[in-house]
Amino acid sequence: MKTFNDTVQAAKSLESLCDILNSYEREISLSDACDLCSLPIFGKEPKNTMEVFSWNDTHMLIDNGTALEGDDWVLVERCTKCGEADFACICNS
Ligand SMILES: [Zn+2]
Predict the structure, then answer these.
(1) Do 83 and 46 touch, CB atoms closer than 8 A?
(2) How far apart are CA 36 and CA 66, in angstroms?
(3) Using CA atoms, how far apart are residues 21 and 43, in angstroms rounded to an integer?
(4) Which of 26, 43, 47, 91 could form a disulfide with 57 if both were Cys (CB 3.0 to 4.6 A apart)?
(5) What is the dihedral of CA 34, 37, 42, 48, to 10 degrees?
(6) How would you list the strands of the sheet with 73-77, edge to edge?
């Protein structure tokens, strides 16, 4: 039987991974339904992976909610200079 985690691991892009996580229907907690610490990744690893669950070369996937229950997954842009998430960028400080 195909599990939710199988679907997550089969995601072909960061955008579809985000959609899959947001479509989760909360029968059990999302963190029990799939391994949020080993989501598929699609590009160069950033230095700062705090609060970042996955990434590609231009965006990072973060959980914008307080509970890990789906619906709150968003993509944020990576800084084109340092490659970090916009909230972790230090280029202008
Ligand atoms: Zn930067």
Answers:
(1) yes
(2) 15
(3) 19
(4) 43
(5) 150
(6) 52-55, 59-63, 73-77
pLDDT in tens, 53-63: 999 999 999 98
- Whole-model pTM? 0.84
CA of 12 to the centre of ligand 1 (A): 27
Q: How many Å lie between the centroid of ligand 1 and the Cα of residue 42?
A: 20
Per DSSP, what are the bridge partners of residue 59? 77
3-state secondary structure of 58: coil
The C-alpha atoms of residue 24 and residue 67 are separated, in whole angstroms, by 13
**Residue pLDDT, tens place only, 5-44:** 999 999 999 999 999 999 888 778 888 888 888 999 999 9
Asked if 65 contacts 4 with a C-beta cutoff of 8 angstroms, the reply is no
